[in-house]
Amino acid sequence: MAKKKPEGYLSAKEARRISKSNRKITNVLEKKRKRKNVPESEYLTTMHDPNNCVEFDNLHTYFFTDAGTVKSVDGVTFEVPIGKTVGVVGESGCGKSVTSLSLMQLLQRPQGQIVEGEIRLNLGDKAYDVAKMPYEKLQDLRGNFVSMIFQEPMTALNPVFRIGDQLREVLELHNTENRSKEEIDARIIELLEMVGIANANGVSQMFPHELSGGMRQRVMIAMALACRPRIIIADEPTTALDVTIQAQILDLLRELKDKINSSIMFITHDLGVIAEMADYVVVMYAGRIVEKGTAEDIFYHPAHPYTIGLMASKPVVGKQVDKLYSIPGKVPNPINMPNYCYFKDRCEMCVGPCDGAYPEEISISETHKVSCYRYYEGVKEGGEDR
Q1: Of 171, 206, 214, 285, which has the fewest CB atoms closer than 10 Å, so is most exposed?
Q2: Yes or no: is domain 40-278 CATH 3.40.50.300?
């Protein structure tokens, strides 16, 4: 009797076939991005709403691996308004960070590629489609218009350079104001003081390992704000910090956002942080947006079963329970996604049409949208027609 192969097993022949096919696709995409002297008209675009700082429109970001194509971001559409904070929430691996890395064009290449969709970035007098921009032009955007506060400051900061030197490198690289060396030194101290570091002169001469976690995170924020960007991507900036330092960092981000009139795209899986920080909330699951709306819509009127499950799984002050609720089941394999609603196999609120194709986005109100068959006209729980 032949031995049954384990789930996900690939023969060497099949792996070679996938690898060869992937190289064909990625070579074409890489060649297009590495072109020199590309006319601006190719990536010049128009914002659908000039009040938005960034617009993600049907974004598809895939990773072409030897095991198959991972659809990390699979048709994501949402906006980040000017001067507002948009919270992107979901469990690990749902595509939050890959969405932000697509905007920064910091995907692991050549495997990671934007294969479809637009990312419109509002520069004030014009707008660029970042998804179509060649590599040589991206350096002008990063830091000046878009910057990122990374998740773990100890790995984001260079351990062999002093804090002041690392800030100086950012300011010299994006020196659009033609600052002198003395002005750059003064700006370094100003940035460190702006993020609440008292001994700014002393800290600028220190190495990252000499600082606490909270201090390192403040340095990362100073680095991100050095060129007064239009949009700040905060990728779980408080995960490695204790609760009291978390509160300080969140207050600091809010204060600085208002001071330089930036927008924030705040990525986290902590609902408490989202409730405190966000004006709008985007809920992601398995590479797609399942629900989006204002913070009030999501927290007081959650509609998608996944969002309802997330809300039920957080502890409530003053309420004693024997065991916290957890969503049953597991996330589907990202290489072989089902052709129906990705959450169906874990859902406790299934209705009749859930066996059909992935549900389209439905507007519950002007600001509140959800992708769920429960809100289709004529459908109610139990699968019966009204």
Answers
A1: 206
A2: yes
Residue for token pair 């947006």: 289
User: Is the pLDDT confidence value at 101 over 50?
Assistant: yes
More confident residue, 253 or 282: 282
d(Cα 103, Cα 50) in Å, to the nearest integer?
18
Give, to the nearest 10 degrees, the angle between helix 213-225 and helix 243-260. 10
pLDDT higher than 90, residue 319:
no
Q: In the chain, count of helices (H) and strands (E)?
A: 12, 13
Q: Give DSSP secondary structure letters for 101-129.
A: HHHHT---TTTEEEEEEEEEEE-SS-EEE
DSSP 5: P
Q: Over 50: is that where the pLDDT of 191 sits?
A: yes
The secondary structure of residue 34, as a DSSP letter, is T
Q: 190 to each of 176, 181, 338, 364, how far by Cα in Å?
A: 18, 14, 52, 46
3-state secondary structure of 60: strand
Indicate the domain borders of the chain.
Answer: 40-278, 306-375
What is d(CA 82, CA 253) in angstroms, rounded to the nearest whole number?
Answer: 15
**DSSP notation for 78-104:** EEEETT-EEEEE-STTSSHHHHHHHHH
Query: Does the N-terminal peptide bond of residue 110 adopt cis geometry, omega within 30 degrees of 0?
Result: yes
Cβ-contact 54, 138 below 8 angstroms:
no
